[in-house]
Amino acid sequence: MKEIFTFLLVLMCSTFTWSQGRSFQNLVGKWEAVDSENQSGGLEILDSQQIFLVYGKERKPVASCQFDFAKSPCWFDFTIKDSTGSMALKSILLFVNDDLIQWQVFEGDARPAHFTEGAGQMVYLRRKR
Length: 129
Known about the structure:
Blueprint: H1 2-20, E1 29-34, E2 40-47, E3 50-55, E4 58-68, E5 74-82, E6 85-97, E7 100-107, E8 121-128
Antiparallel strand pairs: 1-2, 1-8, 2-3, 3-4, 4-5, 5-6, 6-7, 7-8
């Protein structure tokens, strides 16, 4: 029993340390997903001031954003503006590895603490080189 407890404690600490080791710099790049209709979409992050939401040929700038890497999964809230107005979205993201993230976007004020099938669109984004 003591070995199991020790193993779980080490596993929890290493997971916490790993999630804390990620920062904004780990997100810089082009992240893409392809849907069943062969349409691509994702994020393009050049730096903290230049972030774009991409879908097909559309590329919308993120007007404002806020990241919280202290949370696991990370919180990523952003606002998209276009000619009709602005839309505030909340999301969570988790690094699966250096080149793959799980991302779920929610409309409105609610944001679950963990990934859920009940709300929001969930995608896996792969880093494009």
